[in-house]
Write a structure and sequence with these properties.
The chain is of the alpha+beta class and about 375 residues long. The protein is built from eleven helices and 14 strands. It has one domain: Jelly Rolls (Sandwich). The longest helix is centred in the middle third of the chain and has 25 residues. InterPro entries: DIOX_N, IPNS-like_FE2OG_OXY, IPNS-like_sf, Oxoglu/Fe-dep_dioxygenase_dom. Belongs to the iron/ascorbate-dependent oxidoreductase family.
Length: about 375
């Protein structure tokens, strides 16, 4: 009954009674996330989730299929030099123009992809009292569950719950991981680490560098796994699953289910990323744009809310700070010239992540803060 009464308290109030901070805190105190609101039978979107009208204008417009979203087949990437060269060219083109692409024949078994999605489902659909044990906003913890990392700093909350796990270099211990998805997190992460090294080699080559260049820069050292759960939304035209943002890392490897909703900003239009069974989505993050001195693009993307669902996705972030590191990143000297000097000041993953978290999603890119 506690969750139910709180859900009623934070229903969209009258203009005269609206106290955003109090309502945010009332919601936070449930530790049940948006799924708790759905379970309590909420039929109107609580005011804290309603986004400004100017941010919602284009969500009803279906994206026109003017573009073919980049799809790269990795089959033969390590066996055939000619095939590898073509794949490197495709990676370069997609990373420079889209900042996003999908990959197939990546070596991660489809059964493992399905089990990873199901693991996130199991975690979110277990008893609330069990989930509450993981609820925290302490960024030093290696396993946390919460709703919107920027809940108290963003202008409007997004309709999703998230479980966050540190995978490397200082991983959460097995006993720290939720029982219902422990085994699959461990096994899936091993596959993503292998795949990540493959992708970093291809991207190094696409920049004209030696295959191990980015790995030697420790771009692949840090990995965090983030499982998003988007319950059905009672008023999806008033909010987002995730509002527009770019990622604060080197690359993201995203596993999404078949419900869709992910959109990428391309040529000033929002373009749907089509769900493709067995595929993984790869995108360039802010730190990669920084070290490549704008040669590769970290592109805005978002997830629409929906009355269908739940939608489930798993994002693996390479380079997101997952423990204090003194490693400094700056535009690679190999990519600079007299005509193309550094565009960004040096920073660490820790500094970038702290600024990104404090700024929250939406609005301007965090990269602007580091631009020379």
């Amino acid at each position: 009954m506690v969750v139910s009464s709180t859900a009623e308290e934070i229903q969209a109030p009258t203009e005269t009674k609206y106290d955003r901070q109090s309502e945010l805190q009332a919601f936070e105190d449930t530790k049940a996330g948006v799924k708790g609101l759905v379970d309590a039978g909420v039929t109107k979107l609580p005011r804290i989730f309603i986004h400004p009208p100017e941010n919602l204008r284009d969500i009803k417009n279906p994206t026109r299929n003017l573009f073919d979203f980049p799809l790269i087949d990795l089959d033969g990437v390590d066996e055939d030099a000619g095939v590898r060269e073509k794949i490197v060219d495709r990676v370069r083109e997609a990373s420079e123009t889209w900042g996003f692409f999908q990959i197939v024949n990546h070596g991660v078994p489809v059964s493992m992809l399905e089990e990873m999605l199901d693991g996130v489902r199991r975690f979110n659909e277990q008893e609330t009292e069990i989930k509450k044990q993981f609820y925290s906003r302490d960024s030093t913890k290696k396993v946390t569950f919460n709703c919107n990392f920027d809940l108290f700093s963003s202008p409007a909350a997004n309709w999703r719950d998230t479980i966050y796990c540190v995978i490397s270099p200082n991983p959460a211990q097995p006993e720290e991981l939720p029982t219902v998805c422990r085994d699959i997190i461990i096994e899936y992460s091993k596959q993503v680490i292998r795949l990540g090294r493959c992708l970093f080699k291809l991207m190094s080559e696409s920049l004209g560098l030696s295959p191990d260049h980015l790995i030697e820069m420790e771009c692949a050292e840090s990995l965090a796994l983030i499982g998003h759960y988007y319950p059905p939304c009672p008023e999806p035209d008033l909010t987002f699953g995730i509002s527009k943002h770019s990622d604060n890392n080197f690359i993201t490897v995203l596993l999404q289910d078949n419900l869709g909703g992910l959109q990428v900003r391309h040529q000033n239009q929002w373009v749907d990323v089509p769900p493709l069974p067995g595929a993984l989505v790869v995108n360039i993050g802010d730190l990669f744009q920084l070290v490549s001195n704008d040669k590769l693009k970290s592109v805005e993307h978002r997830v629409l809310a929906s009355n269908a669902g739940p939608r489930i996705s798993v994002a693996s972030f390479f380079g997101r700070d997952s423990g204090p590191s003194s490693k400094v990143y700056a535009p690679m000297k190999e990519l600079l010239s007299e005509d193309d000097p550094p565009k960004y000041r040096p920073t660490t993953a820790n500094e970038y992540t702290e600024f990104f978290r404090a700024k929250g999603l939406g609005g301007t890119s965090a990269l602007l803060h580091f631009r020379l």
